[in-house]
Specification:
The protein has 334 residues and is of the alpha/beta class. The protein folds into two domains: 3-146 and 298-332, Quinone Oxidoreductase, Chain A, domain 1 (Alpha-Beta Complex), CATH 3.90.180.10; 160-278, NAD(P)-binding Rossmann-like Domain (Rossmann fold, 3-Layer(aba) Sandwich), CATH 3.40.50. The chain contains eleven helices and 15 strands. Strands 3, 4, 5, 6, 7, 8 and 15 form a seven-stranded antiparallel beta sheet that branches.
């Protein structure tokens, strides 16, 4: 029977010790999306491994694509449309939102990061349905884009769009990408499309070889104009900083867990006119850019190969227990 007709949805709830399947009442008068495909981001693996604090119990998952099945106050959407949505829900009225930093809204709530026993139990994508309150940005998906191509848009791809914006104009510049996971591979392709000369480095040589299918060359050392760190390693970021040419920029995007301090020599920053900046989450226009970028490059790069064949919702616990083999993202098809 159709879950919407019964008013119930099944969800894989992270309890702190494992995953339990629970039925959840679907709310009336809210925008509800049926999950078609969800991917497992590294931050969810960190939560399950105990490296990252978060509400518990909760429905995890924030990279997904789905189909609108019920309309709330978001009147611009229609039932049946395929969509992706932002990681953050913002108020739109506080000083940060008004300044263009909605991802750092004073009242921010996050998809896949809210307590199951709160007022937004279906906040994550490891469920049959997700509820999208006002304040979550939603982007329609072009018809020809496969679910496996577009599914990382709301986290990995949109975050990359934000890092490239922070890096500035890239045409003709030498760009070093540190970390060849989903974000690094995406950044390599996006930087190449922007006209940069791109190299990539990672401790995993298999990942480096995979990244070469997305416009990057293996790193051979030397000075660069822009370094973008997705590794989260202070040592790797320090090494990248030391390779910047005069006027260079270091963008930090991977350090989302506590780590060692980054050693910075102020004199070197001053004399070399270096810029060091950080990016965490993204703005709604970055999500729009992400979908457009995947649409433009759909036939140029093998995006679908980065996402493993999906498992069912009942197997969520198994894909949260270990990284996928032969792909950068595990996936779940509720």
């Amino acid at each position: 029977m159709d879950p919407v007709a019964t008013g119930l949805s099944r969800a894989a709830v992270w309890t702190g010790t494992g995953v339990e399947m629970r039925d959840v009442q679907l709310p009336d008068g809210e925008t509800v999306v049926r999950i078609r495909l969800a991917t497992v981001c590294g931050s969810d693996l960190h939560t399950v491994a105990g490296r990252r604090a978060g509400p518990c119990p909760s429905v995890l998952g924030h990279e997904a694509v789905g189909e609108v099945v019920a309309i709330g106050p978001r009147t611009e959407l229609s039932v049946g449309e395929r969509v992706v949505w932002s990681v953050t829900s913002s108020c739109g009225a506080c000083a940060r939102c008004r300044s263009g930093r909605t991802a750092k809204c004073h009242a921010v709530r996050k998809v896949g990061h809210e307590p199951f026993d709160g007022d937004w139990p279906l906040s994550g994508s490891y469920a049959e349905h997700i509820v999208l309150p006002t304040g979550v940005a939603v982007q329609r998906v072009p018809c020809r884009l496969d679910d496996r191509v577009v599914v990382p848009a709301a986290c990995a791809t949109a975050t990359v769009m934000a890092t490239l914006e922070a890096a500035g104009a890239l045409r003709g510049r030498r760009v070093l990408v540190v970390g060849a996971g989903m974000l690094g591979v995406t950044a390599a392709a996006a930087s190449t499309e922007a006209g940069a000369e791109v190299t990539i480095v990672d401790v995993d040589e298999v990942r480096v070889r995979s990244a070469q299918r997305f416009g990057a060359a293996a790193d051979a050392g030397g000075v660069v104009d822009v370094a973008i760190d997705f590794s989260g390693s202070s040592a790797a970021a320090a090494a990248a900083l030391g390779r910047l040419d005069v006027g260079g920029t270091l963008v930090l995007a991977g350090a989302v867990l506590p780590g060692a301090p980054l050693p910075v020599d102020p004199e070197s920053v001053v004399r070399n006119w270096w810029t060091i900046t950080g990016v965490h989450n993204y703005e709604p226009h970055h999500l729009e850019q992400a979908v457009a970028f995947l649409h433009r490059t759909d036939e140029l790069y093998p995006w679908a190969s980065l996402v493993a064949d999906p498992v069912g919702l009942d197997a969520t616990g198994s894909v949260l227990a270990a990284a996928p083999v032969g792909a950068l993202r595990a996936s779940i098809a509720p």
